[in-house]
Amino acid sequence: MFFSFVAGLIFGAGTGPAEKIAGASLREKMSLSDSEMGIISFAAMMLLASILVSAIGVNSSAFWLVLGGGIGAFAMRAFAFGKTKMDEKKAAALEAADNVAEKADAVGEDLSDAAGDLKSTAKDAADDAKATVKKAAKKVKADA
Q: Which residues contact 73 (CB under 8 A, 6 or more apart)?
């Protein structure tokens, strides 16, 4: 059972290269579409896999062979699809991180400006308080 599944995976993965190799000569001799060529290639590869499994003497059902072949035939496409989706999510996460960093920089600048304004206001208030105290001290001296 496991051997026929693995043989199906291997021969299913070989469907694409077999289609490229045999496709050119078959397309010239017969008018076949791409989908028909894919079906013929898959069937031929599964036939070869079943002959190999039978020749080795493994008694197994065709289900495992075809299941492995189907997975093998589409494994690279599924892998490429998954990789594309992961790359898209990574790019979106990096973009979001850049946006957060820009906003954090803007908030930092705003806080720095506010701190500068607060410092200036505090200095002005201290200067005003000093002037008021000096006036009051002069008034007290004058009254005394």
A: 12, 13, 15, 16, 42
CB 71 within 8 A of CB 7: no
CA atoms within 13 A on the CB side of 10: 11
> What letter would DSSP give residue 57?
T
Under 8 Å CB-to-CB from 57, ≥6 apart: which residues?
none
Q: Do 66 and 5 form a contact (C-beta atoms < 8 A)?
A: no
Q: How many CB atoms lie within 10 A of CB 8?
A: 28
Full-model pTM:
0.53
- Burial grade of 84 (CB within 10 A; 0-12, 13-18, 19 or more): exposed
DSSP summary character for residue 30 = S
Any idea which residue has 């999510």 for tokens?
89
**Residue pLDDT, tens place only, 87-133:** 999 999 999 998 888 888 888 888 888 887 888 888 888 888 888 88
Q: What are phi and psi of 59, to 5 degrees?
A: -95, 110
Task: Give CA–CA dist 88/94, Å, rounded.
Answer: 10
Give the C-alpha separation, 115 to 126, whole Å. Answer: 16
